[in-house]
Design goal:
By secondary structure, the protein is mostly beta strands. Helices cover about 0% and strands about 55% of the residues. The protein has no helices and eleven strands.
Length: about 120
């Protein structure tokens, strides 16, 4: 069974940085597209960034230039480096892996909370 565990969330002041980690067990993340989603309170879940098996990264416009997604296959971990954080980045952040034919993801972590104080 594939399990994804996120870590690295917390409380940070606006302008600060955090690095989120997504570590997998039961599967090799290097064989999978991996994405980070976020869900702010009262809102839906939205894609933040993704990285393909080949290492191609995608970012939504609101985080371009501030967030960087990367992978360390030796550690079976995908990271999301978040810089210049804004209050609107406050959300629960989820890691997802295993792209489906319908365009979604099969496996999800439990999430890590990011709170940015203004």
């Amino acid at each position: 069974e594939v399990q994804l565990v996120e870590s690295g969330g917390g409380l940070v002041q606006a302008g600060g940085s955090l690095r989120l980690s997504c570590t997998a067990s039961g599967s090799t993340l290097g064989d999978s597209d991996v994405a980070w989603y976020r869900q702010a309170e009262g809102n839906g879940c939205h894609l933040v960034a993704s990285i393909s098996r080949a290492g191609t990264a995608y970012y939504v416009d609101s985080v371009k230039g501030r967030f960087t997604i990367s992978r360390d296959n030796a550690e079976n971990t995908v990271y999301l480096q978040m810089n210049s954080l804004k209050a609107e980045d406050t959300a629960m952040y989820y890691c997802a892996a295993g792209c489906t034919a319908a365009g979604g993801y099969k496996f999800w972590g439990q999430g890590t909370k990011v709170t940015v104080s203004s």
